[in-house]
């Protein structure tokens, strides 16, 4: 594996695909350079000694739970009101499964 | 009577004695907006008719009865657009009220309109808006700061008596400093985020812009409190901030972190902040030097954690349930890819890519996990510092407002604009920026007061004490 903190490490085309974001060739070239700079800057974190730090959460924090009870919420009409395409109380999207 | 320059207590006194009606206040503000907003462009959307109707039925006995307030365009107000200054939310109408909006309604507030911002609150200049640049009321060639630049320009330019903003890495405090108003970010968990369009959920917090600290305290009393619909909001009593405000700083210990007075800070800003520290000394506060040794890593940590969280939060903008959808999609991946390509601006795309990258397989430990660990060290810095002092005094921004376009080609330079505000979000503490002077070119300078977690009472006391001794907050732009 490439050095994960090297500024050359990012493949913008591949990552944009993971993010479901279509980029133009110009955007890819610009972001490759700019994000290389940003990753170069953030690589300074590798000099911090974090060997004694755990990320298991702060000891004084506990989960915030609530009762799972019905409460007033949006009607189907309200929930669908902003949908680009809807039918029969459902959001409509392009066909995903052939058949 | 120059109504738009009144403070909220002054306005309420006029409502109470009948010398001014809330509807007239809306009209006078409307006239001011008509005069200055074509230049400032603080508002994305105005609804003066509905504001007049709200004002006409307002109960002036309520804490904000009849008081017109502007709302950053990232918070849902039922029936209003909420665009986040993004093309991807063009045409969206909010189907519900955010909890802060419900609270403001209950307090009698009147909603004027929605303020401009960097798209999805990502930026430090309000130049990343799909609807155009907001200008600084003190110099129209300069940026108002960001991301809540519209709210800062609206309050600084006397186009609203107060405004809501959001602060993820300084997005309230930095523009407040640059526009000479008071900008307050509460402790993480103090104010409900329900109905706020999420950018970085572990950092975002709603706060307010006002002309004075007293008004800031008034607003937090209304906004704060537990909300079962936001399980990161915390169930603890809300103090009467307005009542403890006047107690002064005599006997307090105020810390000056040496890492906040670094090379690169504008000498005029350092001078103004040092002078403010002397004001506290003369009021009987003890000034102590403290150290926050991990400060220099805060921007790097932030741009990993905030982008990681934004890449997850913004996955919901996919053209399915709301907002824009690309025309004639070939299939669902084509729909996602083009909807997001057409809907998001360059900074949002950049951050989604960076955030996706730092969370991706093979890089997660090196970036995201390490950043989370350094974040804990930053939090520990603050915890130790607050064992030695009651609050911290720092500059809010290393420079005054920069020129429009000056940093747009260099994202890293733009990111460094938040160098003094970002650590507060990472640590989850509270902070406020108050006016503390002007540069020789008459650009505002902000003093940042940082309190410990749940330390808003102390933070407001410190801010108010300075305001009582100085008149910077009374200066008005020549618009």
What is the fold's blueprint, element by element?
The complex is a heterodimer of chains A (99) and B (479).
Chain A: H1 12-18, H2 25-42, H3 76-80, E1 86-87, E2 90-91
Antiparallel strand pairs in A: 1-2
Chain B: H1 8-16, H2 22-40, E1 43-46, H3 48-56, E2 68-72, H4 99-106, E3 110-115, H5 149-156, E4 162-167, H6 173-179, E5 182-185, E6 205-210, H7 213-223, H8 241-244, E7 253-257, H9 267-282, E8 286-290, H10 298-313, H11 332-343, H12 346-359, H13 365-388, E9 391-395, H14 411-415, H15 422-427, E10 430-438, E11 444-451, H16 456-469
Parallel strand pairs in B: 2-3, 2-4, 7-8, 7-9
Antiparallel strand pairs in B: 1-3, 4-6, 5-6, 5-10, 9-11, 10-11
Helix pairs in contact in B: 2-3, 5-6, 7-16, 10-12, 10-13
User: How does CATH name the architecture of chain B?
Assistant: Alpha-Beta Complex
Percentage of residues in DSSP E strands of chain B? 5-15%
Oligomer: heterodimer
Number of helices of chain B: 16
Could you say how many structural domains of chain B there are in total? 1
The number of strands of chain B is: 11
Work out the helix count of chain A.
Answer: 3
Termini separation of chain A: 41 Å
Biggest interface, chains and residue tallies: A-B, 49 and 64 residues
Poorly predicted parts of chain B: none
Mind telling me the CATH class of chain B?
Answer: Alpha Beta
CATH homologous superfamily heading of chain B: Amidase signature (AS) domain
Poorly predicted parts of chain A: 1-7
> Class by helix and strand content of chain A?
mainly alpha
Mean pLDDT of chain A: 87
Integer-rounded radius of gyration of chain B? 21 Å
